[in-house]
Write a structure and sequence with these properties.
The protein is an all-alpha fold. The chain contains 5 helices and no strands.
């Protein structure tokens, strides 16, 4: 009977420990994917331990029945039966709790995996805009120069107008990304949510400034084109004057020779 009591006490203590482990964890929503995976493995070990306890409890129950049959103490028999029932109920509850925890962890792991996938897609889209902006800045750097090459200036005007059209499209795309950013931020930690919003806001600021710069450049190109036309007209007028002067000199010479 002493062995029986020791076995009952041992099973009770093990159930206490398992239930403490089940309820003693931190909020799974704060865990990283690696931590969640470890918690799932830990919970699987608890389930295996509960299955082992269930087998041992069955042996203890058989041992208790043998003791009860050889005992003439009804109260002792009732106490043993009550103890076994309590252990059986506790085991059942612990198994249900472990199952619920496993489901919770699996759901959270799926949510984390989905969030990671959505975040990767968002990061790629944001990087595409950043890369486009950096290349566009390099390609369209510098102020327009007054030149007599009007086709070149016209090409610059056309290219800059195309740039503004592309900028408008990318700014609209950023508006869509802003919606995605907020959706992600709601699922991230406060620190990561703040970083996400700051990163997007910085890119929106840079894009808006580049849009303003390109608009101002378009005006400068138009002014340069007007100035080029004016100088070309002056040059044409000067050439015409020189030609007229040369013709006058030539005509005068012919009259003199005659």
């Amino acid at each position: 009977q002493q062995d029986y009591q020791q076995s009952v006490q041992d099973l009770s203590q093990r159930l206490d420990t398992i239930q403490q482990l089940i309820f003693g964890d931190v909020d799974p929503s704060t865990l990283s994917p690696e931590e969640l995976a470890q918690k799932l493995r830990d919970n699987q070990e608890l389930v295996a331990e509960l299955e082992q306890i269930e087998k041992e409890l069955e042996k203890v129950r058989e041992q208790g029945e043998d003791i009860a049959q050889s005992s003439d103490d009804p109260e002792g028999q009732d106490a043993m039966a009550t103890t076994l029932k309590v252990l059986t109920d506790r085991l059942k509850v612990a198994k249900e709790q472990a199952g619920e925890k496993a489901q919770m962890l699996e759901t959270q792991a799926e949510d984390v995996e989905r969030l990671a996938s959505d975040r990767a897609v968002y990061d790629d889209k944001l990087k595409d805009v950043e890369d486009w902006l950096n290349k566009a800045r390099i390609a369209h750097a510098g102020d327009p120069q007054v030149t007599y090459d009007m086709p070149y200036l016209q090409q610059q005007l056309d290219d800059n107008q195309d740039l503004q059209d592309d900028l408008s499209k990318h700014l609209l795309h950023l508006s869509d990304l802003a919606v995605q950013c907020e959706q992600l931020a709601e699922k991230e930690t406060p620190q990561e949510a703040e970083r996400l919003r700051y990163q997007l806001a910085a890119l929106q600021r840079d894009m808006t400034q580049f849009k303003l710069d390109s608009t101002q450049k378009q005006e400068k190109l138009k002014e340069a084109a007007k100035e080029s036309e004016r100088k070309k007209a002056q040059l044409d007028e000067y050439k015409e004057s020189v030609e007229n002067l040369d013709k006058w000199i030539e005509d005068t010479k012919k009259v003199s020779d005659a």
